[in-house]
Amino acid sequence: MPLIERLLRHTTIDENIEIAFDNLRANKLRSALTMLGVVIGVATVMTMASIVRGVREQIVQTLEVAGPTTFYVMKVFSQQPLNPEALPKWVRIRPDLTRAEAEAIARLPEIKYAGIWAQLMGRLEFEGRRTQNTGIYAADAGYTELQGGQLVEGRWFTPAEERSGAAVAVIGGSFVRRLFSNVIPLGRTMLVAGRPVTVIGVYEPPENIFAPPGSETGAIITYRFADHKYRIDPVNQLFIGVKPRAGVSVAASQEAVTVLLRELRKLHPGDGNTFDIIGQDQILDIFNSMTSVFFVVMIVLASVALMVGGIGVMAIMMVSVTDRTREIGVRKAMGATRRDIMSQFLIEAAALTGVGGMIGIVFGLAAGNAVTRLLNIQASPPWGLTLIAVAVSVGIGLVFGVLPARRAAQLDPIEALRYE
Length: 420
Known about the structure:
The chain has 420 residues and is of the alpha+beta class. The chain has 15 helices and 12 strands.
């Protein structure tokens, strides 16, 4: 049915939607510019949502590798690294974690594994090839208990090597490929953070571990070697990783560790703990709180773009009402009610922002997918947020389309017919 025939009678919702899209097609450039703010706002939200969701999924998968019951004992837990040269007094008076404490925890009947580890940063070098600063773990042969993955070549440390602090290392698989090329790494001497070590094994992390560029594990060395040859910051770099036995709850195992450490440190019943214990759920909570703040900032920025887009829709719809004053007068003269006129313009505004929202979703998901692929993060699209984004964009059109629609509905038909 031709557009003019539909306009000259009462219209249904379906027909108003068809009229709205006919008008959008008739004014392509104006419609595209009006949608731009909505497209930018929705695309921003969808891009950030895809990235945050992808990072969160990888973090959760990494925590699952270690197991949901794994927890860590630290001298002090802080979300921000503390300056070792300017520590507050309450941190300075706390004893450092020791290997003896880790061994005592490992002997508890509730505990499957416990080991004292340090996480360092340094370069790996071999025959003139070198990496950027990368993660170096000072640990033991139970490394995979907490980190997962597998040894693909060679062996782990022997008990004798761990006790003596032998200069041996297990190297991350990706770094073997970068440094050794076609050379067999086992038995070779290389530099780890400036110290010579002998390569005895090659380790491959699990595929789902969260490891953005620059934070991969380059090498694993014995803890005692690191304690002798490197400067370890006991506040920011030292921790005891603990894994309970099967069937033992996290609460029970943490309670057992707490009681033991208080006894070893001769703390009285009224004294506070001189150590902190953090579990996987706390790590995830911290990450969630960080990403929530980031996401809120993105929502605010996107909201500004949506507001600008909504104002643009209102302005364009006002212009459209003026341009179509005579059309409105003809419709009213033929019996169209105020409700018909208002419905027509509201649907047109909602269609304008709805289409903009869907375009923004497409661009946002594409951008989010590109960024997560660039960061080597696997993520599923945030479909729930997609539906919300469509609803919000349509809602923007309805809210900002009310004023132009009311103005159109309140036009006097006689005056409207005289309009040139």
